[in-house]
Each structure stands twice: as C-alpha cells, then as structure tokens.
Design goal:
The protein is of the alpha/beta class. The chain has one domain (3-179, 205-244): 2-enoyl-CoA Hydratase, Chain A, domain 1 (Alpha-Beta Complex), CATH 3.90.226.10. Helix content is 48%, strand content 15%. The protein has 11 helices and 9 strands. The strands form 2 sheets. It has a 6-stranded mixed sheet, sandwiched between helices. Helix 1 runs parallel beside helix 3. The chain starts with a strand and ends in a 9-residue tail after the last helix. GO terms for molecular function: isomerase activity; lyase activity.
Length: 253
C-alpha cells in the first residue's frame, strides 16, 4: 500500500508513504497523501501529523515510468493534479505537519516538505528539485521556503542537491539525527505540540497561514502551467523517455 495512516492515543497522526523501489509516487499515491491529511479537518482527535516514509528515501517525486507507460495525457494531468492536491493538503492541514525526511527528498518530495510546518531529517538526507532534467517545472515555490532565493535558483537551474545539515544552518530543517533515531525525533516534537490545547494549535495554524507572504497554491499552479507548455512542445516527453530507461532515483512535480 502506498500511503497508510495510524492515529495514536496521544493525538499524533502518523502518515507513512511506501512505494518501492524509490518512493516515486504514482498518481493515486498523491491523492492518497492528500486524503490522509484532510482527515485532520474532520477529526478533532488529531492534534498533529507526522509525515514520514519507509524505504530508501522519503520521496523521489512522481512515478515517471507510470507516466511514460500510460497512453495519452491522463497520467501527466493526474500527476499535476495529484501533486497540487497533496501539497495543498499539507499546507492547509488543520493541524501542524511535521515532515520526517530520510535519505533523499526530490521533486515532489520537496513540495511536501516545503509546505510542512516543521522539518526534521536523518543525517544522510538531502534535498533537490531535478525538474529541469525531466522537462518539467515545479516545486521552486517550495524550495524557496527552504533556502534563500539565489541559492534556490542555483539548485533549480543545476538540479543539484543540498544536504539536510546545510538546511539546519538556513533554519528550514529543525534538526538532524541518525536515521535510526529520526522517528523518535519527529514523535518527540509531535508529542510536545499534542500536549497543548488543540483548539489553540488549530487557531495558530490558520493564523500563521493567514500571514504567510506567499500564496503557495497560486505560486505552484503558475509553475505547473509552464510544465504543460513544455509537454505540448514535446520537450518533456523526450526527456522523460530518456529518464525512464534508467534506474536512478528521482522524479518531477
């Protein structure tokens, strides 16, 4: 199963992504992430969410092989809509979302993490947006929430990655820990939040979103428009065909 959820007695909702071999999510997987997070809006027992993953890395973006093996544009459109829904659900979740990042976090993974409220990571974790390699654009909105503007542009144009330890210096990753201790780190922070009055925390989440200087939904949707143009030009399909013939971890948003 790609996405599973467990609500603990202390009000921590643990949402786990697992889609071997590299956690590049298929179209349905992105909608499943959104659905798992939307539960917080209707269930007052949920006080905080921990978004995590099992496997080699946190998230490698969309499943490009699924896209290239699907006739027509259904998978492409589905991936665009699914990513938008998942990123939006993280940002607009009624309670704080803690992203616990293990290994790699690429493309759509950065979209999830950039919209989270708190980010913790394993000491071997790294982040990147390789969209330009696959003829897509997206998640610059979210990478810009992790690093300063000029560094974001450097990472975006080069498709380079940045280690979690450097993001700690930028203040976007709260802390790093050995991979074996990552869940404890995330759950410890979650427990601290869950111990507060849930009504106040929900109000605080809405208030913080309300004073955010960037409309992340509009900004990301704008980026997606250029991805669609590149697809109509045939550029994206050519690059994805090349990528789909490799076994490298990575994806696009």
């Amino acid at each position: 199963m790609t996405v599973t959820s467990t609500l603990r007695d202390d009000g921590i909702l643990v949402v786990t992504m697992q889609h071997p071999p590299v956690n590049a999510l298929p179209v349905q997987g992105w909608f499943d992430v959104a659905a798992a997070l939307d539960v917080a809006a209707t269930d007052p027992a949920v006080k905080v969410v921990v978004l995590r993953a099992e496997g080699k890395g946190f998230n490698a973006g969309v499943d490009i092989k699924e896209m290239q093996n699907t006739t027509g544009f259904d998978a492409l459109i589905g991936a665009n809509r699914g990513c938008f829904a998942a990123f939006k659900a993280v940002y607009e979740c009624a309670v704080p979302v803690i992203a616990a990042v293990n290994g790699y976090c690429l493309g759509g993974g950065v979209g999830l993490v950039g919209n989270a409220d708190i980010v913790v990571a394993s000491d071997d974790a790294y982040f990147g947006v390789p969209e330009v390699n696959q003829g897509a654009l997206g998640a610059a909105t979210h990478m810009a929430r992790l690093v300063p503007q000029h560094l974001m542009r450097t990472l975006y144009f080069t498709a380079r990655t940045i280690p979690a330890a450097e993001l700690v210096q930028h203040g976007s990753v709260y802390a790093v820990a050995p991979r074996a201790e990552l869940d404890d780190l995330a759950l410890g922070l979650a427990a601290e939040i869950a111990a507060k009055d849930g009504r106040v925390i929900r109000a605080a989440k809405e208030a913080l979103n309300g004073i955010d200087p960037v409309d992340v939904n509009h900004s990301y949707r704008f980026e997606q428009g250029f991805t669609m143009e590149l697809n109509l030009m045939g550029v994206s399909d050519e690059l994805r065909d090349t990528f789909a013939g490799t076994d490298k971890a990575g994806g696009a948003a």
